[in-house]
Amino acid sequence: MKRLEEKTIHTTPIFQGKIINVQVDEVELPDGKTSKREIVKHPGAVAIIAITKDQNIVMVEQFRKPLEKSIIEIPAGKLEPGEEPMTCAKRELEEETGYTSDHLEFITSFYTSPGFADEIIHIYAARNLSRLEVQKDLDEDEFVEVMECSLEEAEQLEKEHKIQDAKTAFAIQYVKAQGWMK
Amino acid sequence: MKRLEEKTIHTTPIFQGKIINVQVDEVELPDGKTSKREIVKHPGAVAIIAITKDQNIVMVEQFRKPLEKSIIEIPAGKLEPGEEPMTCAKRELEEETGYTSDHLEFITSFYTSPGFADEIIHIYAARNLSRLEVQKDLDEDEFVEVMECSLEEAEQLEKEHKIQDAKTAFAIQYVKAQGWMK
């Protein structure tokens, strides 16, 4: 909507990292005043709602340094430069869980923190999983524990704050609304 | 889970902004090797699933500078220092939508981008809305358009990528799974 637009007056680069870049934009507001916007640039990510034949959802437990604790999430990972989200989703599913699927279904895409970051996450569902014969390698600085749980167990983990992640909270409600799991 | 833990060797402060701080932590990985983690610190936020008496969900359209476009989201806002999430949720509902509620129900909390940020968002539902007699002021650099839509309209907006936001995608599935809207 044009009337809400904020025009960039000046961009100050702050940080160029391995994963994120940070900049501060001076903007002209709709009323002509100026303000500053702190912006994190991120390559984007994918996440996979993976349901096993016996109606469990595949989760990974992972230490998240920004939180100083490990939490349980659906499998996910960052896009490599130029990588198709669907290709990335299949790769991350295989690397993180040891499962593969010959049919990933696109569900939706959403921004995780639109107030300060441009990270977008593309959500796929995989409902015809088979085991990889040979386990693939994770990134060398990545350590995850795979687990499978029922919808009831997932909701219990949410109550216990072990599941406390936007994409995973979405996945649980999506699976419930679709009636995919008992 | 202790065996997944990453110990901090050294923290390098990068940026102290009005909303976010950025730091790079050098960490010891579970296998004894070292790596770097780029971390964004955020004060946390709330969002409100507000349902009107005639079964519409209240949304706000807002320009999001990191995305260089406006998107439609459920009402939300950052926590002020020391502010209770429930208090913040009531305040943001009133400021952004002109509605109030004497009973906000806590739904869940989740991290939006646990890979690089500590932002947590607390989700509340307000299902007994009444109109404020006097409209409250928004923050001086905040411009939003309020709208109300049915569940069907919200899902259509999602298909058109006008709704493309994690907390709002969660809200739509939550409302569907609960059967709160037709």
From TrEMBL, chains A, B:
Start and end residues of each Nudix hydrolase domain: 40-171
GO molecular function, one term: hydrolase activity
InterPro entries from the UniProt entry: NUDIX_hydrolase-like_dom_sf, NUDIX_hydrolase_CS, NUDIX_hydrolase_dom
Keyword Hydrolase: yes
Keywords, ordered alphabetically: Hydrolase
Gene3D superfamilies for this protein: Nucleoside Triphosphate Pyrophosphohydrolase (3.90.79.10)
One of the record's GO cellular component terms: cytosol
GO biological process, one term: ribose phosphate metabolic process
Protein name according to UniProt: NUDIX hydrolase
Organism lineage: Bacteria, Bacillati, Bacillota, Bacilli, Bacillales
